[in-house]
Amino acid sequence: MDSTIYHSLFTGNKKIFALLIDPEKLPADQVEKTADAASQAGVDVILVGGSLISHPIDDTLEAIKRVCQLPVVLFPGNLLQLSTRADGVLLLSLISGRNSEYLIGNHVLASQFLKRSGLEIIPTGYILVDGHALSSVEYMSNTRPIPSEKPDIVVATALAGEQLGLKLIYLEAGSGASERIRENIITRVRENITVPLIVGGGIRTPQDIRLLYRAGANGVVVGTAVEDDYRALFSLAAVKKEFK
Ligand code: 1GP
Fold first, then answer.
1. What separation in Å is there between the alpha carbon of 96 and the centre of ligand 1?
2. In 25-135, where does DSSP find H-type helix?
3. Gap between the Cα atoms of 47 and 224, Å rounded
4. Three-state SS for 83?
């Protein structure tokens, strides 16, 4: 039987909820409380990463592991955010952009480390869609997001990602986006690809999540809404129960 994180998350067409912990934004003393709440709230996976992190990611990973058994998957903004203390890694290729370092360059640098790491590698097509604010991803990667009024380009990009063999598509509006990914984009992408689809950036309320699941997202990624108050996790992660 396949016991990978990927398999456990995406088999059976269920909806999943991913909590993003950005070590730069969540104070160290809140990490354990948040991870503990994540276990109790029914979170499926914890992602760890961010666009710019100035202190060791290992401290955050250890704090999470002290209090919860959930799979912990790296969401690396750069090579400094790789660690063997996680369980897996979203190997992000920023396929909406045309910056070769984020498409393949960093992957070449990381490949031998990843081979030896024991981390489960989840090859992910990362697609930045305009969230109507300059996002950290856009600035740090020096790539342009796809305009949200151009769903055809988003669809074609996701499809190309799947055709290249990527196992997951992640539609990103940018952390703290003023506009999350629109439902019509989710529906169009979902109709055109067969691999799982997750969505993040600017998701704040249970109703946001409900609409995204309904539109066809397999999973949502939430960070900022939980940084303000980890107790929000309980109502946000509960929405997936409506889709069983
Ligand atoms: C960012 O998609 C994630 O990469 C989460 O975004 O912080 O807006 O929830 P938020």
1. 17
2. 28-41, 57-67, 100, 106-117
3. 13
4. coil
Question: Phi and psi for 39 in degrees, rounded to 5?
Answer: -60, -45
Predicted structure pTM score: 0.98
Domain boundaries, the chain: 5-243
Q: Separation of 1 CA from ligand 1 center, angstroms?
A: 33
For ligand 1, say whether the CB of 48 is within 6 Å of any of its atoms. Answer: no
Contacts of 134 (CB under 8 A, 6+ apart): none
CATH number of the 5-243 domain: 3.20.20.390
Our CA dihedral for 147, 95, 55, 174, rounded to 10 degrees, sits at 20
Contacts of 15 (CB under 8 A, 6+ apart): 213, 217, 218, 219, 239, 240, 243
**Alpha-carbon radius of gyration of the chain:** 16
DSSP 8-state secondary structure symbol assigned to residue 36: H
| Segment 40-60, tens digit of pLDDT | 999 999 999 999 988 789 999
Q: How long a stretch of residues is the chain?
A: 244
What integer pLDDT is reported at residue 31 of this predicted model? Answer: 96
CB burial string 89-114: b at 16+ within 10 A, e below: bbbbbbbbbeeebbbeebbeebeeee
What's the 172 CA to ligand 1 centre distance in angstroms?
Answer: 8
175 Cβ inside 6 Å of ligand 1: yes
Q: Which single residue is written with the structure tokens 């990624």? A: 221
Read off the pLDDT of residues 6-39 as tens digits, 9 standing for 90 and up.
Answer: 999 999 989 999 999 999 999 888 999 999 999 9
* pLDDT per residue as tens digits for the range 80-133: 999 999 999 999 999 999 999 999 999 999 999 999 999 999 999 999 999 888
C-beta neighbour count of 181 within 10 angstroms: 28
